Amino acid sequence: MQKTGIDRWLQKKYIYVTQVYCNTLPHHIPSGVNLDETTEETGGRYLYRFTANNDRALNELTAHLEVENITYTSRISEAGGMKAKLFNNPQKSFTMGVFWIIFIIAILAVIFSGLPVKMWKELSVQDESELETGGKNRQPGVELLEES
Predict the structure, then answer these.
(1) Domain that holds residue 109
(2) I need a surface site. Which of 91, 94, 95, 116 has the fewest CB within 10 A?
């Protein structure tokens, strides 16, 4: 199923995490950026890994690294957990799933509220003119069933 714009925004906001790798620490680390020492599992080429929580912190960090002439590389990875299971399913659109659930709940609420029965009773009442004349103003060929 095709992802909607809201799905892509949710993925960008809650799933994708930008990580910046470098060998030298800058003098100033912006707020919203976490610093970790890398392990051999990450490739072993870089000593430090910065994880940015938002775009503003990432832009500020890369600006500091460029001003101080520090070589760096950035990678985008996916966060795990429940958010990833909800927002990052390639087979389903989270937004469309929520839309269908709300739509079905609304239809069930209308059905169980008794609104269709009230509308049917209101629309199926005989006209006042038919009630007064006893049904003599009916069209020819249309017969009403008599109550026994």
Answers:
(1) 94-133
(2) 91
What is the distance of C-alpha 137 from the center of its chain? 58
Task: Fill in the amino acid letter for 127.
Answer: D
Return the bridge partners of 48, or none.
22, 37
Q: Give Dmax (Cα) for the chain.
A: 99
Q: Are residues 22 and 60 in the same domain?
A: yes
- Rounded to an integer, the average pLDDT of 25-34 is 88
User: What are the tokens at 90?
Assistant: 């390639």
Count of domains forming the chain: 2
**Domain assignment present for 141:** no
> Cα(4)–Cα(10) distance, rounded to whole angstroms?
10
Task: Give the pLDDT band (50/70/90) at residue 133.
Answer: low
Residues 55-72 pLDDT 10s:
898 999 999 999 999 999
User: If you search the block for the tokens 């909607």, which residue do you land on?
Assistant: 4
Find out whether 14 and 94 touch, Cβ atoms under 8 Å: no
